[in-house]
Amino acid sequence: MVFARGITPDELGLRMGGVRGSVASPITGVEAWDMVLDLATADNHVVRVGAHDGWSFAVEYGPRDCTRRLAEISRSGVEVVHLHPSLDHPPAMFSHARDGVDVCSFGIGEECWRWGDQPDLLLPELVAAGVLHSDGQYARPDDESYRDRDRHTLALIETRFDLSLPRDVWENERLLALVIG
Questions:
Q1: Which residues fall within 8 angstroms of residue 145, CB to CB, at 6 or more apart?
Q2: Residues 117, 18: Cα–Cα separation, whole Å
Q3: Which strands form 55-61's sheet, in the order they lie side by side?
Q4: 19 near 179, Cβ under 8 Å?
């Protein structure tokens, strides 16, 4: 999931490499997965875009993601937050870019290893949420389930960036879609 502030949903899709007019009409998440299967190539995937609470958002479908393009997507004063679930190769990833710069990234559940131009951008929030100690080492109990641990980090990201997107919106609403090749 990509959130962008400062551009329209259509522009977000184009910056992600989408081809304008490549999908005839707005589609649901299920229809996007059907398109990915119909494309039958690892070089193409589909992105659906929309807007909610002041953010444009994009939901990616297919084998690739836009992680390497975040600085480009964020050019010209745009702020981008990327949450990538990494289902096949955990951990899930958080990345933040602004105005053409990769600001801060880390694995969710691996918050002690942060990188970017400002790797400690969220350190105060991670400490306040009890995820890390002020020295950057883990503060959560060793026996805590990874799902409970991850919820703390996801909640602070949502709060820090004022993100909210009801599941029904990104799964079931018909949204503009583009093929990314």
A1: none
A2: 27
A3: 18-19, 176-180, 45-52, 55-61, 2-5, 79-84, 93-98, 101-107, 110-115
A4: yes
The alpha carbon of 52 is separated from its chain's Cα centroid by a whole number of angstroms, namely: 14
Tokens of 13: 């899709």
Q: Looking at this protein, which amino acid is placed at residue 109?
A: G
Q: What is the 3-state secondary structure (H, E, C) of 115-153?
A: ECCCCCCCHHHHHHCCCECCCCCECCCCCCCHHHHHHHH
Tell how many helices (H) and how many strands (E) occur in the chain: 6, 9
Check: CB of residue 45 under 8 Å from CB of residue 71: no
Closest by Cα among 172, 70, 156 to 121: 156
Cα 53–Cα 82–Cα 130 angle in degrees, nearest 5? 90
What's the predicted TM-score (pTM) here? 0.91
Can you name the residues that pair with 104 across neighbouring β-strands?
Answer: 96
Per-residue pLDDT of 32-66, as tens digits, reads: 988 888 866 556 789 999 999 999 999 998 877 77
Left if phi > 0, otherwise alpha if psi is -120 to 50, otherwise beta: which for 119? Answer: alpha
The Cα–Cα gap between 164 and 66 comes to 21
